[in-house]
Amino acid sequence: MMQKPQSEWAKSMTFKEQLKVIKRLFVYAKPFRNTFIVAILFAMALATINAFLPRILQTLIDRYLTNQTATVQIILFFAMLYLLGTILKAVIWFFQWYLYSSASLRSYQNIRVKLFEKLHTLGMRYFDQTPAGSIVSRVSNDTETLFEFWHVFLTVLTGILAVISSFVAMFQINQQIATGILFFLPILGFVIWYYQRFSSRVYRQMREKLSQLNTKLNESISGMQIIQQFRQEKRFVKEFEKTNDEYLATRYAMIKMNSLLLGPIISLLYTFALGFALTAFGINALSSPVEVGLIYAFATYVQAFFNPMT
């Protein structure tokens, strides 16, 4: 009799186990490391350009527009400079995304081939105890999450670069206010930790239900003749609907968590940080003039500081 296997998604992993899995993933990505490195260099260049663009508008506003010394030639020069920076940003983003996606896709395909080869070395006992649908889910759907991992890794990396470049730019404008913005990081860290703690549990449940869904679908298709002979269609439909509803519930839980927890809280913290910065500049303006372009650039950097975390 076939035993119902415990899904790998049903149990959580310790931090050491997660690090062990990540190290193994990097081993599979090693043949494509040069492509990954070039993509990361493009990401660093992109962060630099994002920090440079607000400075262009700041210079135009403070040196020319505020003093009413701007000419058509000067405005066109800054407009072309900003346009060239934006075009360069788009080109770099394209090559970064293309190179990184192609490398991660080849790494993911390599893992899938290795996994398929591993299946041919397993004994018949494994196939007797494991439903075919569960095996298919592990080879196809579960390996798909590895491809998603590389995109999450890129998102985290570009987010870190954006936070660092934004803070450096703010620090160059005003050290005291930038240091005050930095105090929001511990709160952000706690929010992200709290979100990850509960979202990972819901995500594991979602993947487990998807595996069960594929298992039931495969069993129904492969055994359709027997099901029809014994008139068990209604029972199998009810079982499939139950599993499908459970999977839908986990998807809804993930949507609610994303819409109610992480995004709104980070947006609220961004509003507080921006309000703090504007208040600080307002207090400084009571004793000495504060340039409009400087406030614009600082506000843009505050937005870029929080944007990767939403």
Automatic annotation (TrEMBL):
Please provide the record's keywords in A-Z order: ATP-binding, Membrane, Nucleotide-binding, Transmembrane, Transmembrane helix
| Segments forming domain ABC transmembrane type-1 | 37-310
Please give one Pfam family short name: ABC_membrane
Q: List the Gene Ontology MF annotations in alphabetical order.
A: ABC-type oligopeptide transporter activity; ATP binding
In the bilayer, the protein is annotated as: Multi-pass membrane protein
Where would you find this protein in the cell?
Cell membrane
GO CC terms on record? Answer: plasma membrane
Source species, domain of life: Bacteria
Return the Gene3D superfamilies for the record: ABC transporter type 1, transmembrane domain
Q: Where are the transmembrane segments?
A: 75-100, 149-171, 177-195, 260-283, 289-306
Q: Where is this chain primarily localised?
A: membrane
InterPro entries in the record, alphabetically?
ABC1_TM_dom, ABC1_TM_sf, Type_1_exporter
Task: State the name under which the record lists this protein.
Answer: ABC transporter ATP-binding protein
* Organism from which the protein derives: Candidatus Enterococcus avicola
